Structures are given as C-alpha cells and as structure tokens.
Queue: 3 jobs
Job 1
Amino acid sequence: MTKEMILAFSQTKAEPIWLQERRLAAFAKLEDLPLPTIERVRFHRWNLGDGTIGDNDFSANVPDFTALGDNPKLIQLGTQTLLEQLPPELIQKGVVFTDLVSALEEIPDIVEENFGAALAYDEDKLAAYNYAYFNSASVLYVPDNVEIELPLEGIYLQDSDSPIPFNKHVLIIAGKNSKFSYIERFESIGNQTEKTSANISVEIIAGSGSQVSYSAIDRLGENVTAYISRRARHGHDSSVDWAMGVMNEGHVIGDFDSDLVGSGSHANLKVVAASSGHQIQGIDTRVTNYGHNSVGHILQHGVILERGTLTFNGIGHIVKGAKGADAQQESRVLMLSDKARSDANPILLIDENEVTAGHAASIGQVDPEDMYYLMSRGIDQQTAERLVIRGFLGAVITEIPSPEVRQELIKVLDSKLDKR
C-alpha cells in the first residue's frame, strides 16, 4: 500500500483535507513507531494488519432486523451501513448517530475538534495503523445538557466471508452535562472461511459534567486476530462507567484506557473475559489520574478453559499534581484446566502524596470442595462448573447497569462453555 492509494481511498469518501492529512501523517510514521507495550503478552508476530484498505462487497450475511427493538441504533456490516434508527425528538435536540461521512456533513467542526482527542495518531504503531487504514467509522454526538433515556446501540458486524480487514474507528462525543447509555457490539457473522485482522479504535470524549454508561460485548470469530483500543478523555466532574465483555474466539489484545484529565472526574472499568481452545487474550486496563480528586477503579474477572491464555494488566497511575486522587484495581482469574495459562499483574504508579491507591490480584482453580458439594447433590460436572463460573463472574456482571447486556453476557458465556 502506498500513500497515493490511501489518499485515493480517502478522496473517494470525500473526506476533508484535515482527515486526508491525518491519514498520510500516520502512514508516514508507521515504520518508526513502536508497538504498544502489553506486559507479558507476546503478540509481536501476530497478523494485526496486512496494509490493505478498501470496501467490502455487499454481503449475503445480512442479519434479521425484525427482532431488534425501537431504541436508537446504528448497524454496520463491514464497511457498509445497513440501518440508522434515531427518533425525531432526538434529531431535534441535535443528537447525531451516523457514519463518519454523514457526520462530516452534519457537524464537521465538532468532528474535526474531537477526532483523535482521546487517542493520538502517533501514540504507537497500532494507533497509527488505525488512522491510516480505517475503512469504516461512526460518530455519536450528544449535545450539551441533553439526557437520553433509551440506550443507544452500535452494532458493528465483521463479515467472516470477506478478506477485507475489519478496521473501524468509533467516536463518541458527550457534551457538557449530557447523560446517556450506549451499548456496543463487535461480532463476526458468516461461515468463518477467511482469516483476517481487526484494528478497532473507540474514543469517548466526556465533556464536563457528562455521565456516560458504556457497555460492550466483543464476539469476533476464531479467524479474526484483533487489536481493540478503547480510550476516554474526561472533563471536569464527568463520569464514564465501562462494562466490557471480552468473549472473542480468536487472539485478541484489548487496550482500555481512561485519562482523568478533569478535576472530580470518575472512571469505573469493569471487564469480564473468557479464553478457550488455544486462544490468547491480553487485556491491558489503565486509568491515569491527572485531575484533583479524580477517581479511577478497575475490576477484572476472567475464566480460562482448555489451553487458553488470559492476561490481565491493571495499571493505575496518579501523576504529579493529582492531589486527592483515588486509584483502585482488582484482577482475578479462574482456571478450569491444568493446561490453561494466566497472569494477573497489578501495577500502581504513584507520583503524588495525599492520594489513595490499592490493588488485589489472584489466580486459582475451581475449589474441589465447591465441585464436590454441587455434584453430591446430583448436579453433573459440566453444570456444576457452569454454576461456579457464573458465581465467580457474577461480581462483575451484576455491576453492569443494563439488564439486557447482563443476560446477553451470560448467554455468550454459556455458548463458550458448550463448545468444549
């Protein structure tokens, strides 16, 4: 791929000059930038992008829309937008939820101001790759002082029968004192015939006083090797409650970061993950406290089946000047096989006095006494394991605000257990 080909793709999308220049600047730096640092995960030889850009052909793998609810939603399959559903009353309030091309027509100045505000294009090699090669994107914009009761839903489907990489950029902009819930799904559909890669970047720009409830369920297929980056930049007194279910089938790196720039800002990151087969998943969850009295909490629970590998890195960093900051983290892993591999690494970096910080981490197997108790009451081994796993992950799942997402996570987890 040459810069001329990237520029040609950008021009076919009628992207503005500033975005064309951003793509080319990222492309120019790719060779010199390092890969992101994910402790204790060897992913440097993974195929995380082959340097191609293009559109998917229209696919036969179109999902059934009849079962979907009436809440606001955007559905994309590969690089194609299949459905936009936004009530007129939200449109009148200035809410925008659409693909990037349309957003650049409706709110060009807002997109330009915020695109890249949470993730710099030259932060590392995989960030630069996303900026240079993303082939589809979406924008959710909720203006100042707007509150939305129904959850907004972004459904992003990867066509498993297409060799085109799944390179996506999602931009979420929460105006000052806005309040809303957002549910995000990345899922593979089709026959799993093509091996490919995914590079996904999600940016949340949380304006001062905004409240964002963010839930995500990742279900990319076994032939997709993925890097998923989620970043939030917090204004004063803003809050983002994250709830993420990492339930992919292929190798995955998850890089989830919150920058608590504003004083009094809050981030609660809850992660549930399951690894199975020969799958490797590395989850790097970081909160950086910049603002006075900012609060960042990390809660991660995971299970490993068969020969799977799961690594949790929990990183809390309180920078100099962040007086009154609070950084807490907990990472726990349950292994259901002697051949499973896991790491739970708590990291605290404290550069300021007058702060609060703490961590907890554990790795263990199913308690034989728990299994004996359940099986002695007539429960078979597979059902007993399922009950133990649900109890272990329940500490995180019950914290997820959306009952629909809680039930879906349980359903997805059960499906992974049934494949053993």
Note: The chain has one domain: 3-366.
Job 2
Amino acid sequence: MLLFAAGFIGGILNSLAGGGSFIVFPALLLAGVPPVIANATNTFAALPGYISGAFGYRRDILRYRTKLIPYALAALIGGFFGADLLLRVDDAQFSLVVPWLMGLAVLLFAFGGQISRWFAARSSGTVRNARIGAVLLLGLLALICFYGGFFNAGLGIILLAFFALAGFGDDIHAMNGIKLLISVIVAAIAVSRFAISGSIAWFEGTIAFIGTLTGGYLAARLAHFIPTAMLRISIIIYGSVLTAVFFWQAYA
C-alpha cells in the first residue's frame, strides 16, 4: 500500500509539476530496498509517465524531427554510462552522494524557470548554427543524460534549461515533449542496464509502476482543477526537509 500510494502521488506530481522521485525513491528505501537498487527501481517506476507524456506531445515533437536522431544518440550514450556508473558504487558510497543529488534536484526544481530564462537570454543564433556550437551542445546533452542515468530526479528541469540554451525560444510544448522523449530514452536504456545486472526490485517497482501510471492518468484528467503553484511550493518544502534528513542520516 505504501509503494502504490507513493507511486500514485508521484505520478500525479510528475504530470502536474514534476518531483515524483521525491516521493517514490524514499518510499522504496522505507520498504527496505537498498539505496542503489532503490534508485534504479525509481527510474523503472517513472518510465510509464515519460512514455504517456511524450505520446501526448507527439505532434510538437515532430516539428523538430531533424534534431531527434542526434539528441537520441546523446541520450543513449549518456544514459547508459550514467547507469553503468551507478552499478559501480556500493550502497554506502551512494548513501553519501544521495543528499547532494537530492539537494541539487530540489534547487533545480525550485529555480528551473529562472535557469531556463537565464540560458534563453544568453543563447544566440550564431552559436546554434555554428558546427562547433552544435557539437558542444550535443556533448552537454550527453552529460545531462549521464546525470539522468545515474540519478533520475531533476532530469526534466535540467533538460528544459538545455533546450533554452539550444534555441527553442518560447516553444514550451516542444520543449516539454522532447524533454519527455529524451527522458524515455535515458530511462529505458538505464532500466535495461539495471535489469541485466539484476539491480531492479521488480516486485516493489511494479507496485510503484502501477501507482505511477494510475496517478499520472488521473492527474491528466483533473489537471485544470489542481492549483499547481501551491503544489510546487509544497514539493519544494517537502524536498528540502527530505534532503536535510538524508544529510543527517549520511553524515551525523
């Protein structure tokens, strides 16, 4: 019941404002799943929300079809090596890193809009169109996806900032759609890597998976009736408290 409820709430949050990992990942830890496996399982549980969201934005995504192949390759490479790195650290090492990753994810969630606007104001057409600029952007995207393969929380916010830098302007629907598509690729390749090594708690993950799918669908139907501004504030407060708890557990 705990895992289904966490997945259900996480699915709602991901559909409306993001931040579902702040609910699902700690719930997996409370259920007794070791930290590294809990992180891998959280990526598995988040996958259905990414897929359904990307499908909903399919028309907006196709307007940028020329960018999809290089972006997909960067996501595959970065996501795979990020997931591979996760499997090379033990639970004790990962537990020391988790508070910093959670703190980073909370900051990105809280200030993601300002970060995106900052990048948008400083991006230029000459950088976008220059060959060296395109290569550097792909390298940056691969690094972002490396983070996503290692630790899923906050990936969407970083991707939105990247798209502002890459010159998507105010096309927020396309940015959200391609963000979700890249998240699908990163999560899928990471889950494949985790599955091969036996690093997913399938029983616990499937319960959270079903909850995420249910909550995401319900939120999509009721989105207009839920005040997302208050929801964002609540997530930031909850994420901050959770980060402090993780710091206390890891370093006290």
Note: The mean pLDDT is 84.
Job 3
Amino acid sequence: MRLLVVEDNRNLVGNLFEYFEPRGHEMDAAPDGIVGLHLAATQSYDAIVLDWMLPRLDGPALLQRLREHDIDTPVIMLTARDELPDKISGFRAGADDYLTKPFALPELEVRLEALLARSRGRRKPRSLQVHDLRLDLDTLEATRGGRTLHLYPAGRRLLQALMQASPAAVTRRQLEHVLWGDDPPDGDMLRSHIYELRRSVDAPFEVKLLRTLPRVGYRLAAPRDPADAP
C-alpha cells in the first residue's frame, strides 16, 4: 500500500512511518496542506491519511479541492474533533472514513485496508496515454506498444509528470520539484534521470516522444510532423 500522510505533528508522523514501513508499505509525508495537495494531485497513492488542522490549508479544504478535481483517492481523516457536526463536515468534504485522536495504530491499519478493498471494487482503472505510451496510475506499470518498460522510481515520477502535462512543456524547475521538492541536489542530476528515462521510453522505438526544449525543460508528445521530431 502506498500512503500519503498529511500531518504537521512530527512525532505522530514518525510513529506512523515506524509502524507502517516495516510492514511493507511505502510512505510519503507532507507537513502542511499546500504540500499535501501538491503530492496528492501529482502522485498516485492507495490512500491518504489527512489531519484536520494543518498549516496553510486545512484538511477539509484540501480534501474538497481534490474531490472537485475528480481525484478519488480514499481518505481517512485524523482529528481530535469528535463532535457529530465535525464528523458530518468531514464526510461532506469527501472523507471516506474518520478516526479521532488518540487512536491505536493497528486500528488505523485495518481501516486503511478496508478502505482500499472497497475502493478497488468501485474505482475504474486510471491511466495516462500519449501516442502508444501508457502509464497505469494504479499499478504504476508503463508500457509502450504493448511492451513493458522497466523504470526506476524517479523515472516513473518524471514520466507521470510529463504525461499529465502533455503536450505542454514541463520546466526543469517543475521536474526537479517532482523528484526532490524544494531541496534539489547540487549538479545536474535531472539530466541523468532524463537520460535514463529516454533510454527506456524512446531508444528502442522509431517514433520519439521525449523532446528537450533548450533553456526551458522537456515535453512528451507524439510528433505532429517530421519537423517536430527531436
């Protein structure tokens, strides 16, 4: 299970990571609502653990924005608010479940498992496609012309960002943020990741999809005419 935890309490986030990661779950964390919204909208998660009271953008507002953009990732809200009107507000914002603090970690785990089982039964497969290149957002499997592409995690993240923007360009800064947030490493590590992505996505195929835009960034799109090919 790939989980996004949107929570500003570092101790609680640490406890969640210590409990879930040894059980084989992949974890991401966001310390405020704006970062959480960005990750939830640009990455693929099986479920989101969302705190109610957050800096910059609170949980219900974040959740409402996700639902307005048809992002149906299951969400369980965590909060110390245990009054009925608060619970109703959370569900009306789009929450799938509601857990009041303090809570037992095993209970959160079984609630997440139940959410995931229900969502898999009702959700349609989600995918992105550009020309004959396809990325399954649920399994994160990438194929081109029916052939499975072997990508590293960084390559999958770049590919998803480029496919979501296609045919528009994505700037270098935007792609660096996808990989490293606000703290990119020294040197041109992005160029190395793009090189590896191009080897998988384009090198074995006649039609090239990934173009470098000097001083701008990169664009993933099917060539419209011979002059548009890289």
Note: The longest strand covers residues 2-6.
